[in-house]
């Protein structure tokens, strides 16, 4: 009987051990699947995660809505996707992508580093509908710039009446496009640039990260242009179900993402420099100020509506004013 009890105990221990080390599935959104930069970034992270006690299996998804739905259905234990879609799981981190919130890579690096700091660990977890979620990382994809098919659209006033592709699940984009008098055309991350390239829309916002893979140059043609003025910072969030991972995994993962920020921004700077100079259109100082004020008013409105997180708006303002101390907004309250 004693031997049997020991055997049962040993079997139980082995069972517990295998459960703890069971492979976890992570759905990774990348338009280019396994050959894309996001998936390659996820592969490096998955390799590092072995040191934190996790056996990660990456599942490439070329449709972001499929990645999200598979995560919701429990087919994935974590999902790596754009923050605009991931905002539903964590508004604090999802608000880094707010309009004009991080208008340079230097400001974005400060904001992401602060957000993922261990002191903010409590803000990384949320409980929605009885399910617990945790942000285990934020990766920058770079500033989004506005691309136009006709360089004659060189001011806010001239955008009136023009068709602008917006991501249908991001209310912030729709509201801001409507505020400048343009016509918001609901789209998805899988087709918004295609609509620009084939002439269905006149304008689109995208990071340099998407320039070559999505062939934005086809939509620009000979008469198009890119406003050399960032409108928001695009990031990707890694959201996990913490109970599926070893204790302390989330913070170790976040520390990894912070450590890799310089490498990520180096890649982004290279991609931005790779866009041909003849497409880049600089705005006048007056127009820049006009855009900044427009985006600030938009952030205030969207925060009141509950779309953006108020505490992240404060973080972003501090980051902006630490880099650009003379900016008009630094003497203003409200954020």
Please give a structural write-up:
Keywords: Signal. InterPro entries: AdeT1/2, TRAP_DctP_sf. The protein is 41% helix and 20% strand. It is built from 13 helices and eleven strands. The chain folds into two domains: 19-141 and 233-273, D-Maltodextrin-Binding Protein, domain 2; 144-232 and 279-331, D-Maltodextrin-Binding Protein, domain 2. Strands 1, 2, 3, 4, 5, 6, 7, 8, 9, 10 and 11 form an eleven-stranded mixed sheet that branches. By secondary structure, it is an alpha/beta fold.
Describe this structure in a few short sentences.
Keywords: Signal. By secondary structure, the protein is an alpha/beta fold.
Main sheet summary: 11 strands, mixed
CATH class type of the largest domain? Alpha Beta
Task: Indicate the low-confidence ranges by residue numbers.
Answer: 1-20
What's the structural domain tally?
A: 2
Averaged pLDDT: 90
């Amino acid at each position: 009987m004693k031997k049997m009890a020991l055997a049962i105990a040993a079997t139980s221990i082995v069972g517990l051990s295998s459960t703890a080390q069971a492979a976890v599935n992570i759905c990774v959104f990348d338009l280019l699947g396994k050959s894309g930069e996001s998936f390659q970034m996820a592969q490096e992270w998955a390799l590092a995660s072995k040191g934190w006690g996790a056996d990660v299996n990456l599942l490439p998804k070329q449709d972001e809505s499929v990645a999200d739905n598979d995560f919701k259905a429990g087919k994935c234990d974590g999902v790596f996707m754009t923050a605009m879609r991931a905002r539903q799981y964590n508004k604090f981190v999802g608000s880094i992508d707010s309009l004009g919130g991080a208008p340079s890579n230097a400001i974005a690096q400060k904001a992401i580093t602060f957000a993922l700091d261990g002191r903010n660990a409590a803000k990384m977890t949320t409980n929605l509908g009885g399910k617990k979620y945790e942000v285990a990382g934020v990766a920058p994809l770079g500033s989004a710039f506005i691309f136009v098919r006709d360089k004659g659209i060189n001011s806010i006033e001239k955008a009136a009446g023009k068709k602008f592709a917006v991501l249908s699940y991001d209310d912030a984009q729709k509201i801001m496009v409507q505020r400048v008098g343009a016509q918001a055309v609901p789209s998805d991350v899988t087709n918004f640039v295609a609509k620009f390239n084939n002439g269905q829309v006149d304008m689109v916002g995208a990071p340099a990260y998407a320039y070559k893979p999505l062939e934005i140059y086809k939509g620009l043609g000979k008469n198009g242009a890119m406003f050399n003025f960032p409108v928001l910072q695009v990031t990707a969030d890694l959201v996990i179900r913490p109970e599926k991972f070893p204790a302390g995994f989330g913070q170790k993962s976040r520390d990894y993402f912070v450590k890799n920020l310089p490498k990520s921004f180096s890649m982004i700077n290279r991609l931005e420099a790779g866009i041909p100079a003849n497409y880049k259109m600089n705005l006048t100082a007056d127009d820049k100020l006009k855009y900044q004020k427009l985006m600030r008013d938009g952030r205030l409105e969207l925060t009141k509506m509950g779309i953006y997180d108020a505490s992240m708006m404060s973080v972003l303002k501090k980051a902006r004013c630490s880099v650009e101390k003379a900016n008009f907004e630094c003497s203003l309250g409200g954020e």
